[in-house]
Structure formats: C-alpha cells, structure tokens
Specification:
Length: 122
C-alpha cells in the first residue's frame, strides 16, 4: 500500500502527463468507423429495411405481423402474398392491409381506428 506522500506524487505525475487524445462526446465519428460498421456482416437487413422491401425481394418463406393493440398475429407465406398483392407490393403496406381487413378495434375516429403493426421475424 503506498503511503500518502507516494499517492500525492503519483497523482501529480498523472496530472502532468498528457492524456491520450479522445474524441469529445459531441465530436462526429470518423468515416472509417462508419465504413467498418457497414461492412460488418451483422449490419445486414434491419427491420426498417425489411418493411420497405417489395415482396419479390424478401427471401423468407413466412412473413409475420402482429398488432400492438389487439395482439393478433397474422402469418402469410411469401408466395401467397405475391399471388394476392403482386410482386411489387411493399411488405409494410401488405401487412397493414392484412391487419385492417380483420381489425376488431373500430372506434369511428380515424386516428384511433385500425391495428398498429409490429413486424416480427419468424
């Protein structure tokens, strides 16, 4: 255990030494950082990107969407969704239509009517 005098000496030396340069929290991150993040295989398709895709671009066999209000869950095979809504239909729009067609939460107010989709990965 260092003595109080040794601890003061160590603290004084540490204060004199230049600290390693670190970016301030407000400073923008370097471009190399973002390139490495995007090159990472784990940075694949996010949920938001999946919702914006056309049905023909989705490789999953089964698509699943649930409602945040009534907690209903609907599943549809991708092939069936393409047959019913077309190859160029966006998954987000198809999911909303599927939920709205069987919605039980009708109040008469536009802002409150309908289901609130939550996209899930099967």
């Amino acid at each position: 255990m260092p003595t109080p005098k040794q601890m003061e000496k160590l603290a004084a030396e540490a204060a004199r030494r230049p600290s390693p340069s670190t970016a301030a929290p407000e400073a923008p991150l370097p471009a190399e950082y973002w390139e490495s993040v995007l090159r990472d295989p784990r940075a694949g398709t996010t949920g938001a990107q999946m919702r914006q895709r056309c049905l023909s671009e989705i490789q999953r066999h089964v698509l699943r969407v649930s409602c945040r209000r009534c907690e209903r869950t609907l599943e549809i095979q991708t092939a069936d969704a393409v047959r019913l809504y077309g190859r160029n239909a966006v998954w987000k729009d198809v999911a909303q239509r599927l939920l709205d067609n069987t919605c039980q939460q009708r109040t008469g107010r536009h802002e409150e009517d309908g289901c609130w989709p939550a996209f899930e990965t099967p």
